Amino acid sequence: MLERTARWITRGFELLIVACLAIMGLLVFGNVVLRYAFNTGIAVSEELSRLLFVWLIFMGAVLASAQRIHIGFDTLLHAVGPRTRRVLVLLTGLLLLAGCVIFIVGGWRQTQINLANSYPVLGISYAWLYGVALVFGVALIFPVCNNLLRAWRGDERELTQDLGDRIEAEAERVAADGDGGRAS
User: Fold this and answer.
1) Measured between alpha carbons, how far is 27 from 135 in angstroms, rounded to an integer?
2) What is d(CA 147, CA 158) in angstroms, rounded to the nearest whole number?
3) Rounded to whole angstroms, what are the CA distances from 29 to 19, 37, 47, 94, 113?
């Protein structure tokens, strides 16, 4: 049940990221075409693109953490024994949870402070910009707690995955499928 919920949440984050990127691309491309071809533009393009970019970055960080593909420095973890590795992972997780609390508290305060301030062209509250810190802090708690639980249980699987290894594994999977999973 928990795994299924996690998949749905991950899928939701992926769809939101794709939507943000698509809207940003359309707005910026449309604005460039309108400026150079018709000497006009989309007034909300710059502000909305900037707002969507901030949300995209923070949602992408949560998604990368949940999928264990975030940048990780694991040289020290490979140099120490399993017991020390476990302690280091637990310590890092606790520090990340403290960071989540800082994001939640700071995001909440900034959102409250900026409720009355609004974007000049969009007309929406700046709380939409600062509220991303609150969402980020809450959402990041789940993958961090999952990693903490795995470390506590002694799960030795890597907490980060090397990009080269992931690409090779995916290439091998596609090669094993023969036609790359495409129907003829």
Assistant:
1) 25
2) 10
3) 15, 12, 14, 43, 33
How far apart (Å, rounded) are the C-alpha atoms in residues 103 and 137? 5
Using CA atoms, how far apart are residues 88 and 153, in angstroms rounded to an integer?
Answer: 14
| φ, ψ (nearest 5 deg) of residue 115 | -60, -40
The pLDDT of residue 99: 95
State the amino acid at position 138 in one-letter form.
Answer: V
What confidence score (pLDDT) does residue 69 get?
78
pTM here is: 0.79
| Cβ neighbours around 75 below 10 Å, total | 7
Distance CA 149, CA 153 (A): 6
pLDDT in tens, 76-133: 777 888 788 888 888 988 999 999 999 999 999 999 999 999 999 999 999 999 999 9
pLDDT at residue 50 tops 90 = yes
Q: Which tokens go with 84? A: 């020390």
pLDDT mean across residues, the chain: 86
- Return the number of other C-beta atoms located less than 10 Å from residue 102's C-beta: 12
Q: How far is CA 19 from CA 25, 34, 117, 137, in A?
A: 10, 22, 26, 21
SS3 76: helix
